[in-house]
Write a structure and sequence with these properties.
By secondary structure, this protein is α/β, with parallel strands linked by helices. It folds into 2 domains: 9-132 and 302-317, ATPase, nucleotide binding domain (Nucleotidyltransferase, domain 5, 2-Layer Sandwich); 169-297, Nucleotidyltransferase, domain 5, CATH 3.30.420.40. The chain contains 9 helices and 12 strands. The protein has a 7-stranded mixed β-sheet, with helices on both faces. Strands 3-2-1-4-5 form a 5-stranded mixed β-sheet, sandwiched between helices. A hairpin with a 2-residue loop joins strand 9 (213-215) and strand 10. The protein is globular and about 65 Å long. The model has no long low-confidence stretch (mean pLDDT 94).
């Protein structure tokens, strides 16, 4: 609900490999509108081809925007930020993000709005910072999702302007891919995260163990995934294995951060973002493992793919 109709609004657009997302915030960073639609994936598949995802986004955006446009008054929309690539580095590219870029540019050019290009990862980090209620500063970020498993340093020197540095991460499978691969082997739907977490609640920690494959700050989930598949083939308890997957993910990240040799006192905290971090057991395990850190999490509803962080970025950019 808009408390002040005269207040400017800022739009975020994100078209990831998994979700079409739109969000509006006002200049005080109050969330006005948050609408998302997960892309449909056939049973047994582990996602969509990029061409299929692009088509889904093109279908989804007009319907998602239908209720959002009704919130606008003449001149109330001030700026648009779209994710145009996965990460804020040279050469980062996925076709799906051309959809949010094209829609954002079309809207901004038609309405005479300021447009800024951002990245999917920056949206995740800003959604995490904002939803955790922490001030801009210098943080270590764990970005755990279907397409990303990275350890980053993150600094917001001026409003909305993030400087991200890659410190470590996966050498093969991402954490979300690990979960979905084992979920498919168990007969779960894609994405498997919520179902695997439900199974794990009935499992016993320690009944089954998966290897933690970490070398320096580099994590491998392919070996643990292969071991898990062998256990499934051998008729193991799916509930206990689901819990073992959660333990493996949390402990692998913890060891990789420990191996980077960074001093918690040099940072204002450690922030966990991405869909995998919405898993309550993984979050609790990370808290146990990072006793020397101030640990923050994106709110569960903003851990998965969303455009709220991009809308926040648009509002902050407008302050500069």
């Amino acid at each position: 609900m808009i408390e002040n109709p005269e207040m400017g609004l800022y739009l975020g657009l994100d078209t990831s490999a998994y979700t079409t997302s739109l969000a509006l915030v006002d200049q005080d960073e109050n969330l006005i509108f948050d609408n998302r639609l997960a892309l449909s994936v056939e049973m047994g598949n582990l996602g969509l081809r990029q061409s299929e995802a692009v088509f889904e986004h093109i279908k989804n955006l007009p319907d998602l925007w239908g209720s959002g446009r009704e919130l606008l008054k003449d001149g109330s929309l001030k700026a648009v930020v779209s994710s145009t690539r996965p990460r804020p580095i040279e050469g980062s590219y996925m076709p799906v993000f051309k959809v949010s870029e094209a829609f954002g540019l079309f809207l901004s050019q038609t309405m005479g709005l300021q447009f800024w290009a951002s990245s999917h990862q920056e949206g995740h980090v800003l959604a995490g910072l904002w939803s955790a209620g922490i001030k801009p500063g210098y943080y270590i970020v764990l970005h755990l999702a279907g397409g990303t498993t990275e350890i980053l340093s993150a600094e917001e020197k001026c409003p909305g302007n993030l400087t991200l540095e890659l410190l470590g991460g996966t050498a093969d499978l991402n954490a979300g891919q690990f979960v979905d691969r084992i979920g498919r082997a168990m007969g779960l739907n894609f994405p498997a995260g919520p179902q695997l977490e439900f199974l794990a609640k009935k499992g016993v920690t320690g009944n089954l163990q998966l290897p933690v494959a970490v070398k320096g700050s580099e994590i491998s989930f392919s070996g643990p995934a292969s071991q898990a598949e062998r256990l499934i083939a051998g008729g193991c308890s799916k509930k206990d294995l689901a819990r073992a997957v959660e333990v493996c993910i949390a402990d692998s990240l913890s060891l990789a951060v420990q191996n980077i040799s960074i001093n918690p006192k040099d940072y204002q905290g450690l922030l966990a973002v991405g869909g995998v971090t919405a898993n309550r057991f993984i979050g609790a395990r990370l808290i146990e493992n990072f006793l020397d850190w101030k640990l923050f999490f994106a709110q569960p509803e903003l851990a998965s793919d969303n455009a709220v962080g991009l809308a926040i970025q648009a509002a902050r950019y407008s302050l500069r």
